[in-house]
Design a protein that fits this description.
The chain is an alpha+beta fold and 159 residues long. It is built from 4 helices and 6 strands; from the N terminus they run βββαβααββα. The relative contact order is 0.21.
């Protein structure tokens, strides 16, 4: 499956495909508003601000699958992200990122970039996937990886 064929729903309910982001470097993240890692929104936004003019974009996918840490609806999530962290990168509708009802995008990402010891499951909020400009999954980063630690890997994709 080609990454750019996946259909997603924006946080405002618009259907689109990831084809809109073809030729971009992507950092795809499953997010949550009430998690110990939620302050990572600040660093994700900083990366987006720094590199967006070089065809880089962060894509945030809220999920409530980890201890109910994303309980709000899409409007609540969007408001929280804008007010508390100034998020301007694309956010998408709340989805499942693991299990039987996982969104096909996350099934694809976990197959392309397994986690520790080959695990395909996403273990927690703020798991990050770096995707190169031709749609190849470059790497997977754990929730406790600060987004700024990914910066060198992002920069390599622009050269």
């Amino acid at each position: 499956m080609d990454l750019y064929n996946f259909e997603v729903e924006t946080i405002r309910g618009e259907k689109k495909t990831l084809g809109e982001f073809k030729d971009h470097v992507l950092l795809i993240v499953n997010t949550a508003s009430k998690c110990g890692f939620t302050p990572q929104y600040k660093e994700l936004q900083a990366l987006y601000d720094e590199f967006k003019d070089q065809k880089f974009v962060v894509l945030g996918f809220p999920s409530n699958q980890f201890m109910g840490q994303e309980p709000g609806d899409n409007q609540d999530i969007e408001s929280f992200c804008e007010i508390n962290y100034g998020v301007s990168f694309p956010m998408f509708a709340k989805i499942d990122v693991k299990g039987e009802h996982a969104h096909p995008l996350f099934t694809f990402l976990t197959q392309e970039a397994p986690g520790l010891l080959g695990s395909k499951a996403i273990k927690w909020n703020f798991t990050k996937f770096l995707v190169g400009p031709t749609g190849e999954v470059i790497g997977r980063y754990s929730p406790n990886t600060n987004p700024m630690e990914i910066k060198p890997d992002i920069q390599k994709l622009f050269t």
